[in-house]
Design a protein that fits this description.
heterodimer, A: 679 residues, five-stranded antiparallel beta sheet, five-stranded mixed beta sheet, 19 helices, 22% strand, B: 124 residues, alpha/beta, four-stranded mixed beta sheet
Chain lengths: 679, 124
Amino acid sequence: MSGDDITEEFRQEAQELLAQMEAALLDLEKTPGDSNHINTVFRALHTLKGSSGMFGFDDVSKFAHHVETAFDKVRQGSATATAELIAVALRAQDHMRTQMKNPDGVDKAAEAAILAALESAFDSAPQAAQTEVPVLSACDVETVWTIRIRLPRDSLVKGVNPLPILDELRTLGQARITPVTADIPELKSLDPSCCYLGWDVELTTSQPRSAIEGAFILLGDEASVEVASQNAADVQPSDATASKPETADEPQQQPSAPAQQVDQTQNQEQNQSQQPQQGQQPQGQRGKGGSSIRVPAERLDDLMDRVGELVIAQSRLRQIAANSAEQQVKSVAEEIERLVLELRDTSMCIRMVPIVQLFGRFRRVVHDLSRDVGKQVELSMSGEETELDKTVIEQLNDPLVHLIRNSIDHGFEDAEERARAGKREIGRISLSARHAGTEVLITITDDGRGLNRDRIRKRAEERGLVAPDEVLSDTELYQVLFLPGFSTAQSVTSLSGRGVGMDVVKRTIETLRGKIDIASTPGQGTEITLRLPLTLAIIDGLMVRVGKARYVLPLEAVEECVELSAEDDARSRGRCFLNIRGDLVPFLRLRDLFALNLPPERFQKVVVVSWSGQKVGLVVDQVIGDHQTVIKSLSKLHRGIGMFSGATILGDGAVALILDIQHLVEYGETQEERLKAAS
Amino acid sequence: MAKKSLPKVAANNKTQSATKTGQVRLEGSLTSGELAPVHDELTKAIEKNKTVTLDCSAVTAADIGLVQLMLSARQTARDAGKSVTLSAPAYGALLDVLTRGGFVSAPGCPPAIEQAFWLNQEDE
């Protein structure tokens, strides 16, 4: 592994540590004094301090050290984690995140301000009763502990430095440190980059076990550490990863606790699992026992590209085999088809990541926003384990932040109004995710005042978006909320009210080939549902032919296919409408749109597609059938052509363009309006 | 990221074939990623000589990698009926690692195993 790879891996781990810290701070705000949360914050800071120093992020290390020193007062029980303190700690966490991303662009003034705020928050924090954090308070009795440290061979390569750990043990009491050199081989067999040393430590201290175990936070997951008091029973076998340890955070009032083994990974995971319902950031892809590995996202993209090409090559092979009389070729082609489809499904699964990675971020958003607007709002989440394509997840952040902002700023009443309406003082916003067929539904529900239909209608009429006598369903009316610049807010706040945001939400969701549904009950709240496809890389398409060229339409947009009779065709010259069961549907002749100079075929077809409730027919020469379409993006030169959203390579090697349904529907509507105006 | 200075690990080996005593001079930053040249040099020196003296006076940075390499050299020589000694008591960066790692005890405490080697207090 190169130095860059190791640094990048450290950056990722640091981000996870910061996420753990953030989640624990948010939990701590709800349950001040909870030693599990306090220890999680402290452990994250301590690990970050040590490992960032090892990897050369000295500024992060120094800053983390200051925060850790300050937070140690909470851990020691000499200060209480007040809301103010937690708010500053969250700012500090944000600052470290910035430091990690851009070590050279750190605002030193902001850094100093955070440290000053931290100090002032501690000064004003009331002193906590010792009993609130019994876990880390010192015991009166001095105990002699035997500590056995064994490091994996690759510790030095991974940047583990045991010396600071030994230093920390010395700070806890009287330590007799004996290096274990028996594993050092003779020179010829020695690899200078490997670690062959271990240590046996005899520590006499009044500190509890948890304090001793805290010193080993910086050791890697594979290190074996045994901590036992000398008056305990025999120490268990040294395979630390094989046995389940008791938790390190458990209060250890008895200095003569029985011998325990401590495995760093298991301890951390156990701490995590204590708050499974609180949306805490999971341990990322960090698996136990090497059952998972961390892979750069770009490699997954590369893999998906290759699989896409393989799918294309396989469909060419299928075509060749179909035309071949050779039975063996057919047999091999079928086998390859089966394998390729399995490989495609497996590759797509690899790209799926649980949505908790996204949802976890919103705890902080809700926390900060509710404080900013002075409304008490709590967030609940469900279905965080639902998996979604990583590309989709990455792009969902901004739309969801907009929706949550709107909800908190406009959706919720103030406390008095809620009380008058007989509601709980604390507003509730819930995020949920679930699979529904080939879609994932993400729902944001609040128990606020609901949408004001009359006001939305009035504003829409004022802006000329809706005719005064036009009959609209709620769903239709609420779509105006997504128009650029549309807002019913009577006041503009720093959060929302300018009408900017909802149009961005809609555009982003539609780019992801998703849809937005809104349902609202006055006085009871609003529910916004985002319907998203499982993956963006491969779609089910309907292949059609116009002239000699083939095109693909996303199958989900296709409503039906009808024949364009010669009579309809002749009648519709000038006014392109089709009467489908009483509904007038405008249609576009793709032949005209693409300026093909060939005469139309005798039996043309109309493929009716829909987008946002609007329908348009597309006249084609032939409907070929369904087609598994691997989406390839267009070159920069062609990307600006609105009619096409991408391209795919067909079995015979030809390129088929994928039609952009949204664009075509909008184009069809403008055509319709133009014709209406002309008539 | 802070970059360490380039390792200066070209050991200065003065072999006096008559007495079969060799000297290996260790200098510069000698942390675990920078030890390959020293490893080679030590292996050759022990092969060629009955006694090898290590001059650590110019070591500017060290970690436990260097310590275990030196211990391995000492044991390898001992197994072959040879010896590895220090030209002077360890000090500076090397002594810091030895003290923190428990290879050398604090004054007033019982001496650690091999402490005499590190402090150049072995009986000739």
